[in-house]
Specification:
single chain; 291 residues; alpha/beta; 5-stranded mixed beta sheet; 3-stranded antiparallel beta sheet; 8 helices
Length: 291
């Protein structure tokens, strides 16, 4: 391999020539930046702004890009972060909880028409109570190790046959799991876990079982993560069902890295260039789990 100048109109991108096959390639070849006419510094700035959680509209204004161009670039990067990030196996003490996010078909007129309803001119409002993907209020299952990493998955519904594959994939057997009283968690012991629950319907949010003065039975850690997720999604002013798993996966990465601002950028850049570890389908609500 020898250097062979620079890509035309892109002085920051070196071009190379293979001494064996005589083919030419450059710094962008076989990366997320491949096929793009944007400068690498634009990609890096966009990735930095994504780490600051700016919306696509804000980023487009900052970088003087067309909104559609910014959306396509951020979609690529967000997908890479989801597919390339390391995901741990949770053990010891884990909290599980679910939350429901209102998410319709933003920007997809044909799907709105297929749902046989008029486009909403105001903020999309979901029905009260527990939701599903079908009624535009998809659930997100959250699993967090106390003092450790977080795993989040968007699901089509919250049935036992839906959550079991996710739980058994990411939580080690014999782990002590804390949940609320929702009956979808009733079979955790049959699935090979220890299980303790707190009863929110009775006004109980934390319980001291061993009398040491410390209330260890709770799901407050995971509920705190929900507060952070809601704040993370708020600047984007509504996310469609199609893209919600990517936004949740990106939030999961930022949460687990525990870095912000300029310190986060090297982690993001390394991840988008890392080998692919899973398919995006792993983050999508799967029909195999029953819609």
């Amino acid at each position: 391999m020898v250097k062979n100048g620079h890509v035309k109109d892109h002085p920051d991108v070196c071009q190379y020539k293979c001494t064996d096959c005589k083919k030419r390639f450059n710094d962008k070849t076989d990366t997320v930046f491949s096929g793009s006419h944007q400068l690498l510094k634009v990609w890096l700035l966009l990735l930095y702004f994504m780490g600051l959680n700016l919306s696509n509209k804000q980023i487009a204004q900052e970088l003087n890009l067309l909104l559609k161009t910014c959306q396509e670039m951020s979609k690529r990067l967000r997908t890479q972060v989801c597919c390339n990030q390391e995901e741990p196996i949770l053990d010891e003490e884990v909290e599980i909880d679910e939350v429901y996010v209102v998410a319709g078909h933003k920007g997809q007129a044909e799907k709105v028409q297929a749902a046989e309803r008029q486009p909403r001119r105001r903020r999309l409002k979901g029905a009260r109570g527990r939701g599903t993907l079908a009624n535009e209020k998809p659930p997100i299952l959250g699993m967090i190790k106390r003092g450790g990493e977080l795993i989040m998955r968007v699901l089509p519904n919250v049935q036992q046959k839906t959550i079991k594959p996710v739980i058994t994939q990411y939580i080690a057997p014999n782990t002590l799991i804390y949940t609320d009283e929702y009956n979808i968690y009733d079979r955790l012991e049959q699935w090979g876990y220890e299980h303790k629950m707190v009863c929110h319907s009775k006004g109980e949010y934390a319980r001291d079982e061993d009398g040491d003065g410390f209330c260890e039975v709770h799901v407050n850690t995971q509920e705190g993560a929900w507060s952070l997720l809601r704040s993370w999604l708020r600047p984007h002013r509504g996310v469609s069902q199609e893209h919600l798993p990517k936004y949740v996966g990106f939030f999961q990465f930022v949460h687990n890295v525990r870095k912000r601002g300029k310190q986060l950028l090297p982690e993001l850049f390394e991840t988008v260039l890392a080998p692919k570890k899973r398919n995006l389908d792993d983050f999508q609500p799967s029909p195999l789990f029953g819609v």
